[in-house]
Amino acid sequence: MAGAKPGVHALQLKPVSVHDVLKRGSKFVKWDEVRRHLPCEVEILDISQIRDTRTGRFARMPKDPRLRETLGLNKGDSSPEMLLTIVYGNDLVNISFLNFQAVQDGYCKVTTTTGLSPRYHVHAVPPSICVLLFASAEAIKPDDFTWEMFQNFLDKLSPRPEVERIFVELGSKGKPFMSLDQLMEFINRKQRDSRLNEVLYPPLKRDQVHQLMERYETNTSQLERDQISLMGFTKYLGGEENSVVPPERLDIIDDMNQPLSHYFINSSHNTYLTVGQLTGLSSVEMYRQVLLTGCRCIELDCWKGRPPEEEPIITHGFTMTTEISFKEVIEAIAESAFKTSPYPLILSFENHVDSAKQQAKMAEYCRVMFGDALLIDPLEKYPLVPGQQLPSPQELMGKILIKNKKKHPHRASNGGSIRRKDGTDEQSSPLNGVYTHQTLGTAYSEVNATEEMSTLVNYIEPVKFKSFEAASKRNKYFEMSSFVETKGMDTLKNSPMEFVEYNKKQMSRIYPKGTRVDSSNYMPQLFWNVGCQMVALNFQTLDLPMQLNMGVFEYNGHCGYLLKPEFMRRTDKHFDPFTMDIVDGIVANTVKIKIISGQFLNDKKVGVYVEVDMFGLPADTKRKYRTKTSNNNSLDPVWDDETFVFNKVVLPTLASLRVAVYEENGKFIGHRILPVSALRPGYHYICLKNELNQPLMLSSLLVYTEAQDYIPNEHQGKETDLWDCECHDSEFVICYMDVILTAGELYGCANIMDKVYVCLCFAVIEPQSIDELKQHSSYLKLLKKQCKELKELKKKHLKKVKITLYCNTTCGYVLCRECIIMVTFYPDTQDPVQRELSELNMELQKQTEQFREEHYTHTHTHTHTHLLLKMLILCDSVLLECQATQIKKLKEVCDKEKKELQKILDRKRQNSITEAKKAEKDKAEA
Hints:
TIM Barrel, extended, disordered N terminus, Recoverin, domain 1, PH-domain like, 5-stranded mixed sheet
């Protein structure tokens, strides 16, 4: 969803290398559990439907003794390593098994270690595994049926007039070809993401475009003339380089060194169930299938087993669901835990086992079967102390974490039974009202843990949620709380920002309410919006919420962990998920999509239509745009309807676009979930997937998309003119500088300035010196004006001084007369009067000095303030005038630096390609 590593990502997805054993082939004996007297038929299996391959003790063993004897499994010279089981299906519940026995040793192991690779590398499927069946009377040699012939067959089967129309509009103008310059213009203008940095992701050059033409154009004469035909252009549109989402997004691109609380984690609820919550089968196989989807948090509802075995079981308590063995479940988890993802697996125990003996068995099974993968002691760098962050998925790679109630020293158990606790982390009291037993399910009856189970709990310790203030005061990052969906919704509505802050440090788990007896799901996007890490869903129900969950977690290498957006991780950022405005530091996007046509959507003659939905923040979520229904055409329908516009997507890193195809009666055909932040603009094919996110064989949609930074309506015209300018750092940009600055400040579009001045960071421009600025005419004019004002102030000052001295002299004269009178008529008081007169003269001198000092200080202060204000005003006028003289130097330096940098990047890219080709050549020769 967000948080990709900075810089250009080096794609690590490599083509599948088929083992020599598989190329040569081998003989296997196929066997079935049920005897069928049917003629031998060729069975063809779609590789995308293969869920798993197993050998050894994990392969299925025949139950019939006679069949085991026939296969020689009862003899000492045969072992389970000769058995091979292929698991396949279109959902997690209704799966099928193909069982084989190898004739020679070693073949089963090779098959199980390489069997899943093509399924996760769709673009690298070798043509040899693609089979097309004709009528029984037709035949074709396998050597003659090449991949090119298969593509030509599809082109003949379904002509594409809409692609031809696009080809003409883009520049061919009725000619059967497009020139190299026209193709380069098309790729860099239409197909390139305008949100990308031009230095890190430069537009394609002529030699790069020519390499693309060489890959898709089969006519050598046109290649020599730097031309591409309609056929080659069609192949390019469907090629890997033109995928609607960059291939690197399918690789592990997120930073996996952040604390666990900084990730969304693919999570399951009541993993063992296959149907509803009240009746139906519980299955050990469900744990394997859920783990194979990339799920990293699974749930185990543990109950006390019956005598005489007294083996703990897993079931949905107080319902009519069946029971399965806890030991078998742990064994299945140990076998499938890290087949799809190497990152840590969390086991969420709902522990109802009120027997100390059976809890000890549970702990022992975990220790023995998980071995070193089970994390018992906390890592040395991450002790269980307040304020200590959680370790990262990278540091916990290959580890299994236990979430179970932990025994504390002040809680003691009585003998062999354990006191049942009514209040657990799964049943926190509601904010408004009281939750019933039907709402909470069986979580209300969890029991206290024994010492053996408590020692297995470390970084995922469940506690009862009291309040956000209490959690912040405890400051224990390893404590987490679970919320039933109804309580989680109340918390989200009443304290959304506090919920986001809580999830920055601690982990939270959301699970469906107990009244969802049909195993339906709530919409996970609601709780992703506040940063909840483990949003648990019922994986057996492939409804819309589950489809969204599958589609979102397809990215980042299918590893089950997605890094949350930066503002959901940083403590100095605050976020309101109900905001309708631009988020600080986040550039909103405008997304447009036009559904042009479809290909091989259905094998029935029925009308089809397409729905387009946006999922994200409440301000971003919009449902539904819909095309018209095609006229009984599902093979190659053409819509070319109006463009669907999502004008302002506030948070692109948390938003997903869903494109789904339905029959006219509403029956689901296929869909695709696309992250908005990675959506490529231009013409693309969208390969559809089924409810389980498995790729459909040929079903696809041709669409035209646009994804760009959001610009308010009042700035739309000027912004368009700005980007249409040939040179972004020309004088034309300066004319709209105030517009761009205003848009950036008001709407968070800070990266607009980055795009305009992307080259300035590579050049050091010397500013004009102070002496040069002082010689500027505006400065001299202002200085002359200030000197004139200063002279006037001095005149006023002298006048005021004269008036003050006159007043003081007059007062002194009056005092002298009074003193003379006193001396003349009162001689006895001569000395005191003389002394008083002296004191008055001294006081008068002091006041005069103080007055002059204060006057000087005020004059200096006002002069400095006046100069400062005038200098600020001067800066506006001087800088605008100086820009005109500097822009020429700036442009010359930028152009020079840009050319040099481009040469360096091209040289490095060419060297990397040469080294890679040399390495591949050396490897092939070796």
